[in-house]
Design goal:
The protein has 507 residues and is mainly alpha-helical. 64% of the residues lie in helices and 5% in strands. α15 (375-381) runs antiparallel to α16 (396-404) and α16 packs antiparallel against α17. It is globular and about 70 Å long.
Length: 507
């Protein structure tokens, strides 16, 4: 989840920079295709007098935040290079694959519109990777029979951010990505919004991520309020063309922007309510990497408020001193301050705990089963563990991730080897369950789907996961054997798991 911090930091720099541009007379609006547009970052471009100290300070803060974001993103890129089997293993489950889109979004925001051809190359690579991750994520979610929830947004509707950045270089590409993200939003958002209130087992952090769904869509949709090329920009210099452009946008563009703004405010109210109802159980949990999942959604929401203000100022006939515009500006500023405090505090706690999280002692750890060899897998194969719109049990994908643990890279016998462990503090946006919680939730799932198992097998209470699985295998040898479809689904992780099992057998 370092991707959430990376996205939060780069967004902080952009948002404070935009706040300064819109608040002080040092900066004046200009066209995107103008040479005076030094920082083509959506929404709105400004030309500023760099002789002012305040401008130089906020500009250097912008650079600092982008640098911090790139360093954080580099940690995750380094993980992909150094421990790629771990990343493959995470990609095999929707729960652990959910945060990956945040890395792509952070890179797009760091480099989009900056550093010439380097920025262009990284923006296109990150956008292509995010699109591929979106397709893969939707595929494994269908295989796992999960229903949309807010943790889906970084890998699906998050493409709206890629649309805004690709648009700076390739108009049609930006439009295509924007349309894809809007379609994903309307398919997933309202289902996810309903489910977080109908399913109390969805965690507070996942509920909070709902802020990013409509926020990124609103931000990305601003590309449709911009001329698509230099020629279009020149055409607007003709009064008749400009009048026609603004009339069409007031008729079609602004109602959609108003709808996305309403969704943003609904999500904020919903997120606060879900946090309130889940706070009692959430505050008892130890701090984990999943907690930094609070950062990026709030900053994305703040960015959306600025994008909405920009569209209002450009197309709305509402006077500049209207009470709504004044209230929106204050809300935007309050959200920016709150997001800054939250990001700073959680970043401090994250790096304070990071050394402990990196030192995983697996010597006396119970060896969890491979992902293919869990009871939840058998339910998934038979189609009995699918998510429901209303359910009182944890999603099977979350349970399987907790039951099989995570693949970790440790030093053993002088060599770096891969082993599975449940001593990870979080699984994607979800906190790791303790053994008692896991067993309780698994039994609840089994009861909910009316799992007809042998009584002896159901009553087995071994001292480890391996003993439980061995007992299940004795009673039904074919029960936990993965089907060919399941093997295809886990092709990203099975070889790493096999390597791990081989190492364990030769300890």
């Amino acid at each position: 989840l370092v991707g959430s911090l990376a996205l939060a930091w780069v967004s902080l720099g952009v948002d404070w920079f935009k706040w300064y541009e819109e608040t002080f007379d040092v900066c004046h609006p200009t066209d995107y295709h103008s040479a005076a547009c030094t920082f083509p970052e959506f929404p709105g471009c400004f030309h500023c007098d760099d002789s002012y100290l305040s401008y130089r300070l906020v500009l250097h803060f912008h650079y600092l935040c982008s640098t911090i974001s790139f360093i954080l993103a580099s940690f995750l890129i380094g993980k992909i290079i150094i421990a790629f089997p771990v990343v493959r293993d995470e990609l095999a489950n929707p729960t652990t694959a959910a945060p990956l889109g945040l890395l792509c979004m952070a890179l797009e925001k760091c480099f989009g519109g900056n550093l010439g051809w380097i920025g262009l190359s990284i923006t296109f690579l990150a956008s292509a990777a995010q699109t591929a991750v979106a397709v893969w994520f939707i595929f494994i979610s269908v295989v796992y029979k999960t229903l949309p929830e807010p943790s889906w947004f970084p890998n699906t509707t998050g493409i709206g951010l890629a649309a805004a950045k690709v648009f700076l270089y390739w108009t049609i590409g930006g439009y295509c990505l924007g349309i894809f993200s809007i379609i994903a939003f309307f398919i997933f958002y309202f289902v996810a919004l309903y489910r977080i209130h109908a399913n109390e087992k969805i965690t507070a952090i996942v509920c909070w991520v709902q802020l990013s769904g409509p926020a990124v869509i609103l931000y990305g949709f601003t590309i449709f309020g911009q001329p698509g090329s230099d020629e279009d920009e020149m055409a607007l210099m003709i009064p008749e063309n400009k009048e026609h452009f603004f009339r069409l946008h007031r008729k079609y563009y602004m109602p959609i922007i108003h709808l996305f703004f309403a969704c943003c405010m609904i999500s904020m109210c919903s997120a606060l309510y879900c946090l309130k109802t889940r706070w009692k159980s959430f505050r008892e949990k130890e701090f984990s990497p999943a907690h930094v999942g609070f950062c990026a959604p709030l900053i994305s929401h703040t960015n959306a408020m600025q994008a909405y203000r920009s569209s209002l100022n450009k197309f709305s006939l509402m006077p500049s001193d209207h009470i709504f515009k004044n209230a929106l500006y204050r809300y935007w500023t309050l959200s920016l301050i709150a997001g800054t405090i939250l990001t700073l505090s959680l970043s401090w706690k994250f790096f304070k705990h990071l050394p402990v999280w990196c030192e995983i002692d697996v010597e006396d750890d119970e060896i969890p089963p491979e992902p293919d060899n869990t009871e939840i897998t058998r339910l998934l194969q038979k189609g009995e563990a699918r998510d429901a719109m209303n359910q009182d049990y944890v999603s099977a994908a979350v349970l399987q991730a907790n039951e099989s643990g995570a693949l970790v890279r440790v030093l053993r016998d002088g060599k770096m080897k891969y082993v599975r462990s449940r001593r990870m503090p979080s699984m994607g946006f979800d906190l790791v369950m303790n053994t008692s919680e896991l067993m309780s939730e698994r039994e609840r799932l089994l009861s909910s789907v009316k799992y007809a198992a042998d009584p002896d097998t159901m009553n087995t209470r071994g001292s480890s996961f391996d003993e439980n699985m061995s007992s299940s295998f004795i009673h039904d040898p074919n029960a936990i054997r993965a089907s060919s479809r399941r093997n295809r689904m886990n092709f990203l992780s099975f070889d790493a798991a096999t390597m791990m099992r081989g190492d364990l057998h030769h300890r």
